[in-house]
Amino acid sequence: MKKNNNTPLQPKSLIEKYNIPSPRYTSYPPVPVWKGIEQKTWFHLLNQSLKNDPSLSLYLHVPFCKELCSFCGCTKVITKDKAKGREYLDLIKKEYELAAQKIDFKPHLKEMHLGGGSPSWLPADELDELLTFFLDPQKFKIDPLSLELSIELDPRTTTYDQIQVLKKHGFNRASLGVQDTHEEVLDVIRRRQSFEQVKNVFDWLKEAGIKLINIDLIYGLPKQTEQTILETLENVLKLNPTRIAFYSYAHIPSMRPAQKIVERHGLPDAELKRKLYEVGKKFLLTHEYLEIGMDHFATSEDKLYQAYKDGHLHRNFMGYTVQFSKNLLGFGPSSLSSIDEAFAQNEKEYKEWKQLINDNHSPIIHGHVLSSEELKKRKMIMDLMCHFKTKADITELPDWQKQNLAALSKDHLIEVKNDSLIATELGKMFIRNICMAIDDTYRPQNRHSSSI
């Protein structure tokens, strides 16, 4: 099943033209343009949605990390105080109870994902307690045969006992934050981990029967070259992960001040950054990985591969998923929730999140109710993000969007065929730019990560 990638490296002018801040489109409209939502409205719409479709996805945000990685853009709390774990468990349980009081239906749990921060910050017994609480059949209808359970793991803090807890609860997917395998790159981003640590966790997961394993890598970091990217991928492929997330480094020091540390070591320019991606992509395609949506590559063993092939791939705040549910509930600081018609966002700061819960208030502080036009545009943008194409009557778009699409067509990034807007092979690299071209909410001054 080897594939050939004959897409040439892009001219510097084209890369510079499209290297602009853009949303990552885990939602539409993007978070920076949400207009707010009242909690009463959110829970009313949530109940309506569950009545129509009782399926549910859960996201649990564990905010703690032992050390600060200077590249990271996640919401986290840096602490070695293990007493925080007990406090966090009590708080997130209470957050669930506060929400459950306002939910009229018993949802059918389809998937649950733990992210952070780092869920592996919690010791094995507390991780077990967290999972036991949320995987309680008294709270949700659960079919163990179809339930998708996944977790993000930091190889530096993951233990064998934690993996045994995951095995006990039936986890079938895990993601390891590796980023790079070169010591000089890891030193720059303050993530000191050996490849032996990564391999140990990988082996523990496979021994526990968790065979669907993703490796997170980042390109665009200081000290990276085309050769080091290939060496990192060669190292990683020795483990045979079923999925690789090959992310572009998002440099936003105005929002993440620790990233100024990364900046001191010199970031690659847009042209080099694109070359890093291109050599990585070509390597993966020639080693039987299929490009799926944005940033992701999977083997035929991974469910993501088949979902993409069958046209059933979906995208939400947890990223790409094969389990489609209209309802996603997030718990923990900064967690995001969504239903067909609305979004909700928890308080980001741990102390404020804690205070709201201790005062018996739901920590939802922001959100958005979608208009009928936004629902239509969301469908188009999510189709592009998942399948690189969408149904679109171009004649109905406003003139400024028609002009945007004309410019993209001139640069050979899109084709319009039979009322469909299709990203070309070249255009797949610029899929976020294509989405921006038809995004009614996009404003250049909104703060997003670079699109390349």
Describe the structure.
The chain has 15 helices and 22 strands. The protein has 452 residues and is α/β, with parallel strands linked by helices. It has 2 domains: 1-25 and 372-452, Orthogonal Bundle (Arc Repressor Mutant, subunit A), CATH 1.10.10.920; 26-346, pyruvate-formate lyase- activating enzyme, CATH 3.80.30. 44% of the residues are buried.
Number of strands: 22
Under CATH, the topology of the largest domain is which?
Answer: pyruvate-formate lyase- activating enzyme
* Unreliable residue stretches: 1-9
CATH homolog superfamily of the largest domain: tm_1862 like domain
Strand content: 15-25%
Given the C-alpha coordinates, what overall shape results?
globular
Radius of gyration: 21 Å
Compute the number of helices: 15
How is the biggest beta sheet arranged?
10 strands, mixed
CATH class of the largest domain: Alpha Beta
Distance between the termini: 28 Å
Structural class: alpha/beta
Secondary-structure arrangement, i.e. CATH architecture of the largest domain: Alpha-Beta Horseshoe
**Total domains, how many?**
2
